[in-house]
Design a protein that fits this description.
Strand content: 15-25%
Subcellular location: Secreted
Strand order of the largest sheet: 7-6-5-9-11-13-15-17-19-21-23-25-27
GO cellular component, one term: extracellular region
Family: Belongs to the mycobacterial PPE family.
Number of helices: 9
Distance between the termini: 63 Å
Largest sheet: 13 strands, mixed
Shape: flat
Number of strands: 31
Helix content: 25-40%
Structural class: alpha/beta
Keywords: Secreted
Pfam family, one: HemolysinCabind
Amino acid sequence: MSEGRWKLWHDAASLDDAAQAWTTLADRLQTTADRLVSESKNIIAEWEGESAQSYQEHRGRVVAELDAAHGIAARVSTGVQFIAASVRIAQGQLDQSWATVSQIPHSGSPSGAVRFEPRNDAETALVTAASDRAIEIRTRLDSELGSDRQTLIDATTQWQAISKTFAPIAQHGADPFKLPADTDSVGVITVGNKTYVNTGAGDDEVTIGEDPFSDGKLLTINGKSYVIPKGQEIIIRTGEGADHVNIPQGTQVNFTVLGGRGNDRIKTGAGNDRVLGGIGDDEIETGDGRDAVLAGIGRDYVDGQGGNDLLSGGAGNDTVYGLGGDDRILGGLGQDYLEGATGNDVIVAGAGNDIVSGGRDNDALYGGAGNDVSYAGAGTDSTYGGTGMDTSYQESGDRAGGDTETTVTVQLSDQARFIQVEGSSEFVARVEADLDMLRASPTGQQMLAEMQRAHDNSGFFGIGKEDLTIKEYPRNDNSFAHDGPLGDNEIRYSPRMDSISDGPPAVVLYHEMAHVYDYMTGNYDRTVYTGEDASDHGDEQGERVAAGLPVDHDHDPKTPERIDPDHRIELTENGMRREMGAPHREHY
């Protein structure tokens, strides 16, 4: 084996994989352009007017940019293939050079400098010639790679130009072309085996149920019902407004729901559903089935439930839970919280300082751009940090990619198994995912251990032990905790709350757990806060303690405020946020 300057320590196989990936992307871009041209012919054939002309211009731009992107991807693939070939050829030449001196006595490590000890002038000449040859090979390789590097730099510039062209649409919700005015009336059209529903502008209520007089479905829009024949695929476009679409669990119909502008709430059933949230802060929950969700632009909450789902948060600070099934989860642009839960999941965080949790089973977690924090969880997992300063909390058998700056080995906690969860099956699965994340978190483990200690040290002959039940709170505006009689502590948890100081729902749960810890230990401070932070005047000090904010710990206004010494920072919301890399909460 070649050593020292004769060994490149390359990974040409990974370059081959990268080249193939770019080739695949080029093919898909070409296929997408061809499909767009083919499938839009029927639209433009009979569409006239200002909107039609605007759409045709937009269509032409999209096709042109797809063709350009195809060419860029093909050039990148070719460039990477050239790099792999150049490296292999150079290594082969270095191996030949090394073979001429490998039998001469030498010392040093394979990856470091090699010191030869020639025994005669002939061996000295061989070492000199081989060393000069190695320098020549490496110099030529540097020149070749410099040319290939410039090809990749040029391709990157061109790719970024295309991205910039469509950024106003993809990231900020600009209309891609002049859209026709939305109608206020409801439209229901059946063509073949598909029924198209347009609910119109406004805040709409849409539900689906069984028609008692036929074997079809009963679609109700704002109180008016429409019978949909059996076997139809239903496409619902809600348009502008804060719309609510509710398809009950178990409904065996394939739906496509287009949310449009507005803060929509969409819940689908057991079919293979497709949901596009559009622009706005949407809540999207799918049921069993192989579902595909693109939440769109805004601060969105997505819950995949059962089935092997494809879930994308899109642009904005999103919260995405895969839950049951082998899911593929994409965070997109923004600071996202992405949870795989059960199943062998693949999670790609995208750009932003993201928080990624694999949950149970064997997961692959990719951080992307930004300072990401990942919790591998149970199973045999792989984590890849991407660019930025990334941290991975994982078990000893997991694999961390070379681009993860900090790897922390953890042993999953088995503490606080006495915690009970009550509510719908969907709620139970959600809370169990949050608790699993805390079991993989060094900070979360401290909370669970303290609760276990308080539980074990409480009660009298098993009566009155400090317990905790987490119950479903149906509204999205709050979560709260209270200390019941004989240690029956309770948290009412709204699992969709993800807008408090840009933190994920899990930190809301952690805040309430901080209250329960104080109830268990008898340290909850009900004193009204009157300190330096005027925005929290009138609130109980216990709320600031749970948040991890300074309080008048000794009830002496003359002494400085500080974190409650009886409630260390790791057992507070801000302690959990600090580990996650989530924004610090400044006020209660």
